[in-house]
Amino acid sequence: MEEKRNDSTSLRPEGERLLDAELVSIDLYDLNEQIQRETAWLEGDRTAITVFKTDGMRIVLIALHAGAEMKPHTAPGVISVQVLKGKINFATDQHNEDLEPGQMITLHKRISHRVKAYEDSSFLLTMATPGDTDH
């Protein structure tokens, strides 16, 4: 299997990181600290970093400031959201769940949902990406 890496950029200068390989070890707490030192977090209401990306799956670490909201949207595949820090509200048209560290929620594809942070929060978004072979 060929390893895939993400190169550093001016917005994310802390070096390249491994995105796909036979085995990928990810330190979520270290990455969370890293993204909260970046301009997007310091000057905006959110930031995110892709921590794993392969055919059919993507995992993204997302951080939201208190009060930040991800407006209603859908995903092309099944998702899971696992809270690492803080407290968020995850809502669909039919369900409304408050989530704290250690709690997780799953959602089937193409269901409109939104996320709001009650306090500075971080969560892991895992997405099935059907048909995604360009990673």
What does it look like?
It is a single chain. By secondary structure, the chain is mainly beta. The protein has one domain (4-129): Jelly Rolls, CATH 2.60.120. Helices cover 10% and strands 47% of the residues. It is built from two helices and eleven strands; from the N terminus they run E-E-H-H-E-E-E-E-E-E-E-E-E. The chain has helices at residues 28-35, 39-43, and strands at 4-6, 17-20, 46-54, 56-64, 69-73, 79-85, 88-92, 96-99, 104-107, 113-117, 121-129. The strands form three sheets. Strands 3-4-11-6-9 form a five-stranded antiparallel sheet. Strand 3 and strand 4 (56-64) form a beta hairpin. It is globular and about 40 Å long. The protein starts with a strand and ends in a 6-residue tail after the last strand. The model has no long low-confidence stretch (mean pLDDT 92).
Describe this protein with a few key phrases.
single chain; 135 residues; mainly beta; Jelly Rolls; 11 strands; 10% helix; globular
